[in-house]
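[Meeting: bench + compute handoff]

Bench side (C.D.) handed over the final construct sequence. Compute side (W.E.) agreed to return the predicted structure before the next meeting so the bench team could plan truncations. Sequence as handed over:
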Amino acid sequence: MFGVNEVTAQLAPYPAETLRKLRLQLEGEGRRVYDLSTGDPRIPVWSAIQDKVRNSLPDISQYPSVLGSARLREAHAAYLLQRFGVRAGDNLTLLPTAGSKEAIFHIPLSLIQRKGQDRILFPTPGYPIYRDGILFAGGIPTPMPLRHEEGFLQQPWNLPPEIVRDTVAIWINYPNNPTGTCATPAYFARIVEWAQAHNVVILSDECYVDIYDGALPESQRPPSMLQLTQKGVIAFYSLSKRSGLTGYRAGFMAGDPAILGPHTQARARFGVAQPDFVQEGAIVAWEDDAHVAARRVIFSHRVRWMGAALLEMGIQTQIPEATFYLWGKVPAAYSEDDVRFCRELAEKGGVLFSPSSWLGGGGPGWFRIACTLDDRESREALDILQGFCG
């Protein structure tokens, strides 16, 4: 009898698709829907990027290289130098990716040892692809709960020795999705010290590193793990949040050549090379900061006023300094059942949030609000939420 393997057979519906189906169902019923569930802001793409992509469409289409063009790699290197003071060279390999999702999913394939070190740590709640990539690579996904009382910071130094012994890598994600938490250089330094002491690779998802409160002084902007070390570190960057190119699929990886060198050979087999015209648009995006600053103004405004409104409702615990997410506590009447709360809010009020239980198997009792709608729609959604919570 034909069938699929155990991992595929046991997959739960992907959260974004579940929420999309719920939105389509509500719209099919003629309902007004306020979708604040997915991190896909509806802000027009900077026209210079669009123009470059249109003008770069080839008359003859050919296979792109997994290495990307020399000009694209130069743009990646220039970004790292300008943003973090990190200089590309013999100790740092750069590799373009088709966004960050596929890169995050694929990296465990080159790390899982399958002879002992087959465990990868990941934050929960968090991006579901951390866990899924580990599962498909044949590893053991090991969740690390993000707790409010610990500032939503992972604490790998508190793990039992038998867990650490079998760990090959750890996912770190700051600024954090979904909590909006930022990490300090001192915290990163402690992560590096722990990881190097135990021969653990650091996988640093930095896709939100350019989405922060524009009023922050330069010294307080979110750091990169690469500023501490490139040894045993792979950092992931994306234009999805920085430039709003979610549909273009453009990003890059940067890190230890001992890992990314061989992994490049693996990626040549995955079929994930960026089309040349996307590369041209990505070069424009990586080389410009003005359009990113303009997006930060929009996000900072939304996070501040929506966060203040949620604080007043007793739902939000703090206003984050980075990302465009707000992390709310489920009303007491729901006994921490975040899925039931979010479903009832959607079905009765047409407002969609992401329950924490759907975010990488995260702990119950929370929900994520993505500040992706304009002020008028957001205000209407919050008014519905306030009425719903009584």
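W.E. noted at the follow-up: The chain is about 40% helix and 15% strand. C.D. will use this when planning the next construct.
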